[in-house]
Amino acid sequence: MSNGKILVADDDSAIRTVLNQALSRAGYEVRLTSNAATLWRWVAQGEGDLVITDVVMPDESAFDLLPRIKKIRPELPVVVMSAQNTFMTAIRASERGAYEYLPKPFDLKELISIVGRALAEPKARRNLMSAEDVGENMPLVGRSPAMQDIYRILARLMQTDLTVMIMGESGTGKELVARALHDYGKRRNGPFVAINMAAIPRDLIESELFGHEKGAFTGASSRNVGRFEQAEGGTLFLDEIGDMPMEAQTRLLRVLQQGEYTTVGGRTPIRTNVRIVAATNKDLRTLINQGLFREDLFFRLNVVPIRLPPLRERSEDIPDLVRHFFTQSEKEGLPSKQIETDALERLKHYRWPGNVRELENLVRRLTALYPQDVITANLIDSELEPPQPNQTSDVPSNDETLSAAVERHLTDYFSEFGDDLPPPGLYHRILKDVEYPLIGAALAATRGNQIKAAELLGVNRNTLRKKIRDLDIQVIRASR
């Protein structure tokens, strides 16, 4: 007995043969065609329980056919295949009402699983919302398997308001993903508001998020609108959420639970209607174990986790990214450039600690500073090679002062950002970085004697105790 009839449309005879064999072995009846006209005739006659079709057909695109299929048979699931493998392909498939999008080549076991899942679902759940064409401007670049997984997740999320947590190293494009969720989702007509938690002083974060009333604190000379109010009806992107102070975490959790907030200094609750997308380059579970992040807030934010792979895990995307950045630079008035195959290979074997942002900065630098029309491998080597050991400015000497060491460290730190600047708040971050080893060294030197350590540091004993507690320094007492 057949498990159902599958209609397959693809102008590649090899693919039709493979799909026929795999689906037949799984117990399905299969009908094959190489054109959209025959597929449409079958669908219009009421044939088939599921459609598998390539996007590019000799007589018509599947994207043009899909709306007609969904109009006469909204319950019929359609699985779209494509070798184009771009973000916009996945989005357009979702918006036209496809049940699933599969980039070629694909795993046959995965296809069989998708078919089984689609046929097992109630028919009412298969009719996805369609939307207007969103154009061909591609916000995300890459055709690697890792990026295909991202595209498929995003396509499924477009017509939802689910809270999303984007995880990835600095420079992987977390805000681009957040903007794509907004620009191609059902809140596209609302505002997209971004706030970087690492760039705002701790004592101002609540005011930035929720706004404040006139006179709420010293310097509050007028009412201030917070980011939640600015994002009403749209998307609020909370970048570097791991840097949010505990007090603000508590207030954010309350907003997510109750759907309302009060301004700083205000009393009247304000209802909110925003989609939350958060991002972090830190391991939040580690922060939870250290008592620096609320576990209940993590579960509220981590409804749909998306991990953005670092560039070194998708090096096959580098040629597409380079061409994309060359095109961007040319639109900005910089000279047109090409790149040798050997040069691309050099780029593909580099580790990219700064990820896509570092690659973009390199491409812009190559475009702006070098007169050559073709970027060579030697040019790439000269840009990517590490500093030579004889450069004394980068090598600490035995008699190097603390001031000189800090200056050297900051020079290296600033260079990591290329033409950009580090996030604001650097002064307090540096002090915090110095404070921990300084207090730890003082406690070690005094064998954990806090009275002597406070005297050594020149601070009040209560101040030292508070620092030990805030910095989570483990004090080991020992006798001399």
Q: Could you explain how this protein is built, in words?
A:
It comes from Pseudoxanthobacter soli DSM 19599. With 480 residues, the chain is α/β, with parallel strands linked by helices. It has four domains: 5-143, Rossmann fold (3-Layer(aba) Sandwich); 160-307, 3-Layer(aba) Sandwich (Rossmann fold); 311-384, Helicase, Ruva Protein, domain 3 (Orthogonal Bundle), CATH 1.10.8.60; 426-470, Orthogonal Bundle (Arc Repressor Mutant, subunit A). It is 44% helix and 12% strand. It has helices at 13-25, 36-44, 62-72, 87-95, 108-120, 145-157, 174-183, 205-210, 227-230, 246-258, 284-289, 295-301, 318-331, 341-348, 355-369, 377-384, 402-415, 426-445, 450-457, 461-470; strands at 5-9, 29-33, 50-54, 78-82, 100-103, 164-167, 192-196, 235-239, 260-261, 270-271, 275-280, 304-307, 338-339, 374-375. The longest helix has 20 residues, at 426-445. The radius of gyration is 28 Å and the shape is globular.
Topology:
Elements: E1 5-9, H1 13-25, E2 29-33, H2 36-44, E3 50-54, H3 62-72, E4 78-82, H4 87-95, E5 100-103, H5 108-120, H6 145-157, E6 164-167, H7 174-183, E7 192-196, H8 205-210, H9 227-230, E8 235-239, H10 246-258, E9 260-261, E10 270-271, E11 275-280, H11 284-289, H12 295-301, E12 304-307, H13 318-331, E13 338-339, H14 341-348, H15 355-369, E14 374-375, H16 377-384, H17 402-415, H18 426-445, H19 450-457, H20 461-470
Parallel strand pairs: 1-2, 1-3, 3-4, 4-5, 6-11, 6-12, 7-8, 8-11, 13-14
Antiparallel strand pairs: 9-10
